[in-house]
Amino acid sequence: MILFMLPESEKLIMGTLQQVKDPEIDSISIVELGMVEKVEVRENAVFIELLPTFMGCPALDIIRSNVEKAIRESHNFHEIHVNFVYHPPWTSDRVSDEGRLRLKEFGIAPPPERIAETGEWHVDCPFCHSTYTTIDNIFGPTACRSILYCKTCKNPFEAMKPISTIM
Amino acid sequence: MKMGDEACKRALIELLYQLADDDFILAYRGSEWLGLAPHIEEDVAFSSISQDTMGHAAMFYQLLTDLGEGDVDQLAHARPSKERKNAILLEFVNGPGHYLSKPRYDWAFAVVRNYFYIQAKKIKMESLKNSSYEPLANVALKVNIELYYHLMHWRTWFVQLMNADQTARNRMETALTRAFADFDGVLSLGSFGVEMARYQLIEPEEMLKKKWEAYMQPVFDSVNLTMPVDFGKKSGDGRAGEHTADLDRALTILGEVYFEDPAAIW
Ligand SMILES: [Zn+2]
C-alpha cells in the first residue's frame, strides 16, 4: 500500500495500525509485514482489509481484535469493519524494508529477496551475517517461519519463509 | 460463471464439498500424529502442514457458507458421514491402536497417502486458479502457494524411504498397494464431474489424472517404481457419500466438543 497517496483520514488510520504488532513477533507491525491491503473511511465508518500470511494462522482472530481495539481507542468511528481477504495473496516480498530490519532485531532472518527457479533459497545469519547457513527444518514454530543453522557462529536461527506466486 | 444457472451452482457446491471434506479429514488424521512422528523435527513440520490444511478446509467451507449452505462449524462438524464427499483413502485410520493407547501408526502409509494427495491437490489448485468462479480462483491461488512446501516435504520423505533399506522398501510397497487400490477415489470428481468441466469450474477428471501421472512419473522412475495402468476405488466411492466406519469414529471424536454446545464460540 502506497502511503503518500492516501487521503489524510486514512493516513491517520495507518498510523494507528502501525501500533498493532504481530502477536508472535512483537517487534514488527502488521503494516510492516505488508498485511494491510486497504483502509477506507466512509463518513462514520472505517473499512480495513487485511491479508493473512498463512490461511491456517491461529493468530488471525487475535490480530483482528487488536486492530479493532486500537482503532476504537484512537479514533471515533461508529462502525469498524475489519476483514481478512485472500486476494491478492500475501507474499513475503510485501514485508517492507523497515519490517526486514525489525525482523532482524528480533533475531529472525527476513525472507530472501530472490528465489531460484528451482525453488531454492538462501538467507544469511541474522546474528553474525555469515552466508554459511543450512536449513534445518522448513517448518518452524509458526506457519511463516523456518528453522536454520549458522555454521559460522553455530547458532540456530529462524527465517521468514519466502512465499511467492511463482511457487 | 452465471450464478443464475442452477446446474452450474449445483456442480460448484459439489466441488467445494469435495475440496473441503478432503482437507478436513486428512488434517484431522495428520493432527493425530502429533507427538508420534518419527522425530521432533517431523512433529513440528507435520503439525504445521496439518494446521495449514485445516485452514484450507475452513476456507472451502467458508465459500460454501457464502453460497448459502450454512454455518462453517456446522458444515465441518455436524454433517453425518453419508453427506461427506471426501475420498475414502483420506479417512482411513493412521494404523492399528488408538491415539491415546498403544498407537502403532504406519509412517509409510502416512508418507504415501500425504504425498499422493498433496500432488493431486496441487494439480487441482493449479487448475482452479483459472476457475470461472472467481472467489474459488482467488482461494486456490493462495492455497497453491502454501502447498509448495508441503509437496517438497512429502516428496523428500517418499524418495528417501523408497531408497532406504529393504525393510523400509517393503513397508512402502505395502502402503503403495493400499494407496493405489483407492487412489481413483482421490482423483475422482464424482457424478457432477462433467458439469464441473462444462462450466469451467475445473478441468476434466481425465486431464487431472494425466497431469498427476506426468508429475509422478519422473519421481517413480527415480525410485524404480512402475506406474499402475489403473488405480482403484476398492473401498467405495466417497464422492457419492460411501464411507467406512473409520470416518464415523473420526467424526464422533471431532464432534465431541462441538456438540456439547453448538452455539458456543471457542
Ligand atoms: Zn551466524
UniProtKB/TrEMBL annotation, chain A:
Annotated coiled-coil positions are: none
Every PaaD zinc beta ribbon domain range = 110-161
Any Pfam family: FeS_assembly_P
- Identify the InterPro entries for this entry: Fe-S_Maturation_MIP18, FSCA_dom_sf, MIP18-like, PaaD-like, Zn_ribbon_PaaD
Ranges for domain MIP18 family-like come to 13-74
Provide the protein name. Ring-1,2-phenylacetyl-CoA epoxidase subunit PaaD
Q: Which organism is it from?
A: Cytobacillus eiseniae
Upper taxonomic classification of the species? Bacteria, Bacillati, Bacillota, Bacilli, Bacillales
UniProtKB/TrEMBL annotation, chain B:
| GO MF terms held by the record | phenylacetyl-CoA 1,2-epoxidase activity
Cross-referenced SUPFAM superfamilies: Ferritin-like
Q: Which domain of life is it from?
A: Bacteria
- Protein's UniProt keywords contain Transferase: no
> A Pfam family name for this chain?
PaaA_PaaC
Question: Any keyword Coiled coil?
Answer: no
InterPro entries per record: Aromatic_CoA_ox/epox (IPR052703), Ferritin-like (IPR012347), Ferritin-like_SF (IPR009078), PaaA_PaaC (IPR007814), PaaC (IPR011882)
- Keyword field: Oxidoreductase
Q: Any idea of its EC number?
A: 1.14.13.149
Identify the NCBIfam families for this entry: PA_CoA_Oxy3
For this entry, the protein name equals: Ring-1,2-phenylacetyl-CoA epoxidase subunit PaaC
List the source organism: Cytobacillus eiseniae
Q: What is the lineage of its organism?
A: Bacteria, Bacillati, Bacillota, Bacilli, Bacillales
